[in-house]
Amino acid sequence: MSTSSPSPLLALRGIGKSFLGLRVLYGVDLDVWPGEVHAVVGENGAGKSTLMKVVSGVYSPDEGAVEFAGARRTFHGPRDAQRAGIGIVHQEFNLLPERTVAENVYLGHEPVRRGLVDRVAMLRRTAALLASIGEEALPADAFVRQIGVAQQQVVEIVKALALDARLLIMDEPTAALAGHEVEQLYALVRRLQERGIGVLYVSHRLKEVFDLSGRITVLKDGRRVTTLPTADTTPERLVRHMVGRELSSYYPDRAGPGEVGPARIAVHNGGNRKLRGVDLRLRAGEVLGVGGLQGSGRSALARALFGAAPFTTGEVTLDGAPVRLRSPRAAMRAGIAYVTEDRKGEGIVAGQPVLDNALLASRAVLPAWTGRRARTTRVRDLLAAVDVRAAGEDQEIRFLSGGNQQKVVLARWLALGPKVLLFDEPTRGIDVGAKSAIHDLVRRLARDGAAVLMISSELPELLGMSDRIVVMRDGRIAGELPAGATEEDVLALALGTAREAA
Ligand SMILES: Nc1ncnc2c1ncn2[C@@H]1O[C@H](COP(=O)(O)OP(=O)(O)OP(=O)(O)O)[C@@H](O)[C@H]1O
Ligand SMILES: [Mg+2]
């Protein structure tokens, strides 16, 4: 018989935390056993990330105690927690873009030989760690700025593994991953579990929570509502605990016949460094879904239409007239809005207040003095409509929870009253309640005549929201699917395994 440990790996007792007098956590208790995957769920701003940061030594709690491996601990910063065996993959990445994958993995604990950083060993060990989780395709010497978001997520995980963590915290580890990449993460989590590593798993994707966890703790407004064995509950019941009410699991109705108008934006044979032979018509009144794997050209397509990485070949027309979308400003002036997938990198101005962040796009397009009052009122209405939870509109956006930051970015673009909306993973990191509000909003925009292009790695969302779906592969449109297509249809096109249509 193996000697099972008599005490939990991690025990949180009565954790309380405030920021500048604002209370965020109240008396939270939570245990994690070796080999247990313990999920933590709750609405945006419930306190999940804050709790994870207490465990990982980023914050020290105002009240309560952290026990790890049987002893009461006070961590003096994240390094201290790492040395004790607690690794964390943060919701927002903390990688250095100008360094390589290996340098990021071993940052602060580089292998040393004769007083110098042993680069060869560092590369070798990183490659071995990548291989151990089935990610050998990612080169250890690639610069982080050159790799995609999903790969950055892999680097974050490998970084934690390199520290020999006994407890691994994952704060929305799949927010940036596409379907098949999520499967890889599942396999990885199970491998960690077999090695006796405890995992704290924060996610808004309830399917993952049910697939992976043994127990689930629900936080609401900084308090622990309940802890349940996963086998004893259902998604519906969990949502009720989280949101405090029933929530319909339906997507809004699709565009009916006659609701879809002429092409707002059309591309003929569009190409650039990342795209080839793109033919696309995005019509007023429709939601066009874009599927595909990371790096398949989904974001490149949105960026080309927004003028951020323009088409260099082919023709684009807007409402029937030829246009050249050479810059984001030109696109914005033409009524095109773009919600980027890279919120931290290009979505928000971290040190500025919520309201200014929300006003950013409208200010860039209109002279400062026109319609200032009206514009501000409109933005305030939109912030309320997407249900941003902040201390106030003057709060710096960096202090908002991840999901609430995303809602501010949405409000900013909606304020333009755009004709064409390009959404790149619009509901990433957004809780179940706010998500269905955003789905309704997207559909309403289409119904009011906007043309909506929506990229989503979450297949149920892609299938549930789209009037039709184009699937990208290797910079091309691999095929188009009507409403009613299945997850398998999308994956087959994305992976290139689709049989030729009969
Ligand atoms: N450094 C900080 N200063 C001030 N307030 C903060 C700080 N960090 C977090 N908060 C506030 O604490 C609350 C909880 O935030 P937290 O990030 O823990 O939420 P969350 O449950 O992780 O949400 P999400 O699902 O959106 O990621 C929010 O109201 C947030 O604005
Ligand atoms: Mg969070």
Strand content: 15-25%
Helical fraction equals: 25-40%
Q: Evaluate the radius of gyration.
A: 23 Å
Counting helices, strands and paired strands, the structural category is alpha/beta
State the distance separating the first and last CA atoms: 58 Å
Largest sheet: 6 strands, mixed
Shape: globular
Average the pLDDT over all residues and give the rounded result. Answer: 89
Number of strands: 22
Determine the CATH superfamily of the largest domain.
Answer: P-loop containing nucleotide triphosphate hydrolases
Number of helices: 17
Poorly predicted runs are none
CATH topology of the largest domain: Rossmann fold
Please state the second-level CATH architecture of the largest domain: 3-Layer(aba) Sandwich
CATH class of the largest domain: Alpha Beta
Bound molecules: adenosine-5'-triphosphate, magnesium ion
Description:
This protein has helices at 48-55, 78-84, 101-105, 119-132, 149-161, 179-194, 206-212, 235-243, 298-305, 328-333, 343-347, 354-365, 372-385, 402-414, 432-447, 459-465, 487-495, and strands spanning 10-19, 22-32, 37-41, 63-68, 71-73, 86-89, 112-113, 116-117, 167-171, 198-202, 215-220, 223-229, 263-271, 278-283, 287-291, 313-318, 321-323, 336-339, 420-424, 451-455, 468-473, 476-482. The chain is built from 17 helices and 22 strands. The chain has 3 domains: 10-248, Rossmann fold (3-Layer(aba) Sandwich); 262-335 and 419-502, Rossmann fold; 347-417, no CATH class. The chain is globular. The model has no long low-confidence stretch (mean pLDDT 89). By secondary structure, the protein is of the alpha/beta class. Strands 6-9-10-3-11-12 form a 6-stranded mixed β-sheet, with helices on both faces. Strands 18-19-20-15-21-22 form a 6-stranded mixed β-sheet, sandwiched between helices. 47% of the residues are buried. Helices cover 34% and strands 24% of the residues. A hairpin with a 2-residue loop joins strand 11 (215-220) and strand 12 (223-229). The N and C termini lie far apart (58 Å). Bound molecules: adenosine-5'-triphosphate and magnesium ion. Magnesium ion binds at residues 48-49, 91, 171, 401-402.
